[in-house]
Amino acid sequence: MMIRSLFATLAAATVAIAAVNEPCYGSGGRAGVCMTTSKCSADGGTTINGACPSDPDNVKCCTKASCNSGGNCRWKSDCAGTAASGFCPGPSQFKCCSSSATGFGGYSAPRIPSVGSCKKVAVDGAKMIVAAWPGRVREIGCVRDCSCSSGNSDHCCGKATDMMCSDGGGVPTVSGKQIAEWVMNNRGALNLKYVIWGQRIWDARSDSVKGWDKWKKMEDRGDVTANHWDHVHVSYK
């Protein structure tokens, strides 16, 4: 996604906020939604502390382990079975899923960008990620029509890929965490600069290896795509 200034983003980390009604990871990694504790309780959910770290005190990660006689609440994009509305807390895309399977991915192999405006390091990186996570990447974005200059997104220079991992743009998922941490752990082979997932950023030039929940927080940019809840952004050196 568009990054006006990576360094400004990092400087803003201490005042970053999570986005209400967007995803979070609850107890045991269960899919959740950031929402007020009162609304969560009224809808039959339970909250945990710390998963929506910089929101107001009354906004926490809400999960609901069971719904509608054997279902479980999760984001529709991640449901391997049928998904029913009206049984789960949060927005309309957080539904009661009839399957206990994760439902991550299941996509046909995406088109890999060709080398040109999209630089070879990005093309090679995209190939590695797709090969490591078959069926998990639906689409790949690389180049944007913008000036390749200091402070602009690496997409402007063809040195970044957006690894779309939900059922569509703007469709939330919690599936990207595994991919993002794999990218961090394979930083050398990918020639990684930084990776973003779920409003958190890890910079290969300065950060130590750690779980996604310990990465630097980013500000709320206003929607699922801008907050990187439908794709993993990978920038290359």
UniProtKB/TrEMBL annotation:
Domain ARB-07466-like C-terminal: 116-229
Stored InterPro entries: ARB_07466-like_C
GO molecular function: carboxypeptidase activity
Signal peptide start-end: 1-18
Coiled-coil residue spans: none
Keyword RNA-binding: no
Keyword hit for Flavoprotein: no
Family matches, as Pfam families: VldE
Keyword annotations of the record: Carboxypeptidase, Hydrolase, Protease, Signal
Superkingdom, taxonomy of origin: Eukaryota
The protein's name in its UniProt record: D-alanyl-D-alanine carboxypeptidase
Source species of the chain: Rhypophila decipiens
